[in-house]
Amino acid sequence: MAKDPAFLFYPGDYLRDTQCLSERSQVAYDRVMCEHMRNTVITKTQLNFFIKRLNDTEKEELISVLKVIEGGYQIEWIASSILKRRDYSESRAKNRLGKEKNTSSTYVPHMENANGNGNGSRQHRGGYGGRGVAPIVIQAVEIDPDTELARFPDGSTQPLGPDQSALFKKNRIKPKDIVQGLSN
Description:
Blueprint: H1 11-18, H2 23-35, H3 44-51, H4 56-65, E1 67-69, E2 72-74, H5 76-97, E3 142-144, E4 149-151, E5 157-159, H6 162-169
Helix pairs in contact: 2-4
């Protein structure tokens, strides 16, 4: 299994540990917190690297919020969070291994997305009336500038909607942008 790139961050625990730390001690705390992703136990050598620029008071501040364990130190809530997530991820992986893959059971035809009909015209997403049937899209072939009526291939017309009219006056809409039955 790939190494998990994250852990659950609990702001309350973080603030509880860092509220009395100086800025420099807090930066060292943050670096120790990130190091936990690689090592749940921070060795004395690693800790010395993180605190090498801190004065004695700042070192004491930081060490006071770390838990001393066999082999080094840790931020208890971070180590716990990492282990919980690791256990959860492993249990999910085991569950997936025990199940037969059947992607067809998740296929639902009405969830298809009808974005085009192959001839370049645009269709509405989600089908017609929520039933998964793609609507028939008929685009205008011309717009009469005097009457602001869109004319369709079958000879029918419809007035431009207010938004379409405004765009038409600014030459920002073309006949193919007008769809029969829709105006806004």
